[in-house]
Design brief:
six-stranded mixed sheet, rod-shaped, 1 helix
Length: 222
């Protein structure tokens, strides 16, 4: 058997980290993945933290990759302080997201894969309000109702869907165009019958945002 040592074995012999590795291979690592907040809502920033332990001890080098259901998230990078890597996720759709972190290792430490962390993302809540933008008037005179829809913090995102105006339980108008801004309104002009009526505006919601309904707006038409 040759008495010559390989370059790796010689370097390994000079480090205490190799004493526990009879084969001279780099020591193993473990990766722990956590997130905050969990659950979250659509549009809310979620911070994933991956922490590596073991290895050659002390500060480790190498990179961390984060995946969602096995797909690369283009999030991660080199390890930072305390052997951690952060991923800031802001576009998670409602549902359960099985995240994992993959530490790629370095010259002195083996790679490792974290636990599967199920990140729950709920739909963001919305608020719908209604106002009368023309004075109350005589029967036969048009009235204009306006509705505004907002996404409740910490949720965020662009609105889609439509708004339906009701008089008591009857539909009197619908905004046919989609709402496309984070805070957007729509208006409808109607000619109500005489008497006391209560108008409401109902937002339909979409795949990311919950539906909502305004409080009642009482209107008396002479």
């Amino acid at each position: 058997m040759s008495r010559k040592l390989s370059a790796f074995a010689f370097a390994c012999a000079l480090t205490a980290a190799c004493f526990d590795s009879p084969t001279g291979a780099p020591p193993p690592t473990g990766t722990l993945l956590t997130s905050s907040p969990n659950p979250s809502v659509f549009g809310q920033v979620v911070i994933f933290t991956a922490t590596v332990s073991g290895g050659s001890g002390g500060a480790l080098s190498g990179a961390m990759l984060f995946s969602d259901a096995g797909l690369d998230t283009n999030c991660g990078g080199p390890l930072g302080n305390a052997n951690t890597s952060l991923c800031f996720a802001v576009t998670l759709a409602p549902g359960i997201h099985p995240f994992q972190a993959n530490y790629l290792g370095d010259a002195n430490s083996l790679s490792s894969t974290s636990n599967v962390l199920n990140q729950a993302v709920n739909m963001a809540a919305t608020t719908t309000s209604i106002v009368l933008t023309t004075p109350q008037s005589q029967a036969g005179t048009p009235l204009t109702l306006s509705a505004t829809v907002t996404v409740n913090p910490p949720g965020a995102g662009a609105l889609s869907g439509f708004v339906t105006f009701k008089s008591d339980t009857s539909i009197v108008a619908t905004c046919s165009r989609a709402i496309v801004n984070s805070q957007s309104g729509c208006s409808a002009t109607i000619t109500p019958a005489p008497g006391m009526q209560t108008f409401t505006a109902q937002y339909s919601g979409d795949v990311d945002l919950e539906a909502s309904s305004s409080i009642g707006l009482p209107v008396t038409v002479q």
